[in-house]
Structures are given as structure tokens and as C-alpha cells.
Amino acid sequence: MKTKVREYRRAAGLTQQELADAVYVSSRTIISIEKGQYSPSLMLAYRMARVFGTTVEDLCQLEENKRIDDEENGYA
Known about the structure:
Blueprint: H1 5-11, H2 16-23, H3 27-34, H4 42-52, H5 56-59, H6 62-72
């Protein structure tokens, strides 16, 4: 899943460890999310969105990810 976590984290001037501490996960989790190797749970996405003052929909690029998923699965 594509996200804007790296973009928002850098704009906020946070390290991966600082973000991880703020949302109660390991820095490895943040690294994996930023690389698109791990999709955050709804609660983790919500926590990160709150840190950045945005929505889960924006942070996790839900519209774009839905479009990609629809195309890959023949729904579009």
C-alpha cells in the first residue's frame, strides 16, 4: 500500500524513531510502512494521521490504492 507517511514525517521534522514512539510501534514498523512493505492497521493509520493533523484517507492514499486494487483485480 502506498502512503504519505515519509512525506508527512519529514515535513513534521520527525525521525522514524520519534514517529514510532508517538504511535507506540517500533521504528522497523515505520520503515516498513514507508517502503510500502507493510500496511498499517486502521488504528495505527489513525494514530499517525492524528500526529500529522490529517485524515486516514489522505495519509494512506485510499482513493489511489483503491483504484490500483480495482485494476489489479479486474473490478474497474
